[in-house]
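Q: What changes when FE2/S2 (inorganic) cluster is included in the input?
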Amino acid sequence: MILAVRPPAAFPPLRAARFFMLRRLDSLSPEIPRPFSLYRQVGDELQFLIKVMGRGTRALAATQPGESLRLIGPLGNGWPTLTPGSVPWVMLGGGIGSAPFFELIRQARAGMDGGAPVPADQLTFLYGGAHAGFLYDIEAFEALGVRVVACTDDGSRGFRGNVLQALEAEWDAGRLPREVRLLACGPERMLEATGKLAAARGLECWLSLESLMGCGVGICNGCPVATRPDGPLGAWTNAKCCVEGPVFEGRAIDLEAPV
Ligand SMILES: Cc1cc2nc3c(=O)[nH]c(=O)nc-3n(C[C@H](O)[C@H](O)[C@H](O)COP(=O)(O)OP(=O)(O)OC[C@H]3O[C@@H](n4cnc5c(N)ncnc54)[C@H](O)[C@@H]3O)c2cc1C
Ligand code: FES
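A: The predicted holo structure follows.
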C-alpha cells in the first residue's frame, strides 16, 4: 500500500533512502514507531510504500484519509550521490526493498546535488520478489524510463531467479559491463550475498539495511551492525544503523558477524 502523509511544513527535497519513524496516534499502533524509507516526495506530500508485516504496519494500513499520524524524521544518511560516468549504476531491490530506489532514480535522472544528470542507460534496476505480486508498484518504476528487470523466484514475471542471478545473466549476455557500481536494499541474506559478490569482484557497493529499530535516533542501541576494522568506519566494532546508516558501503560492515 502507498501511504501519503502531509507534514505540517513542507520539507526541502530529501535524499533517497532517508527514512521516517511512523505510527498512528492511537493504541492500534505499538508504542514504538516503525521505520519506513521515503518512497516518493510529491510537492509537500511524503509517500511511503508499505508492506504489511505485523501490528505496526497493519495499524498504518488502517489509516483513513484525514487522520493524523506521528512522523519523526527525516532520519539516516541516504544513498550516495549518483554521478554519470563510464561505470554504470546497478540497483538491486528485493521485495519492499525497492522503496528507497524510486526517488534515487528520479534524483539521478535530474542530477543530484546540482551535478550532471545520469543518463538513463547508465541506470539499471533489478527488481526481485518471490512472485509477481511482490514486485510492488513495478509499473511506476518502469515509467521512470530506466531499464527495469523483473526477477521472480517462480518465473511468474520476467527473469526466473533472484536479483544476483539476474545480474550474472546480464553480465553473461553482455548487457552490462563487468564493472558496475552496486546499490542494494532487501532481505539481509540478499545484502550479505551482494556484499560478498562486490568484494570478490572488486566492485563499489552500497547496502541499505532494513534492521529492526527502536528509537531511530541513536539512543536505544537497538540497531547495531558489525563494522570491519579495516573498513572506512575504522576501529568502531559496531555502527548504529539509524544514524550511521541505513546506507553503508559494503566494505564498511560485516553482516555475518555477531553484534
Ligand atoms: C531504514 C528502514 C527502512 C524501511 N523501509 C521500509 C519501507 O519503505 N516499507 C516497508 O514496508 N518496510 C520498511 N522497513 C521495514 C519496516 O520497518 C518493518 O516491516 C516494520 O517495522 C514491521 O513492523 P510491524 O509492527 O508491522 O511488524 P512486527 O510485528 O514488528 O514484525 C512482524 C514480522 O516481521 C518481521 N520484521 C519486522 N521488521 C523487519 C525487518 N526490518 N526486516 C525483516 N523482517 C522484519 C518480524 O521479525 C516479525 O516476524 C524499513 C526498515 C528500516 C530499518
Ligand atoms: S534504533 Fe535506537 S539506536 Fe538505532
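Observations recorded in class: DSSP finds five helices and 15 strands in the chain.
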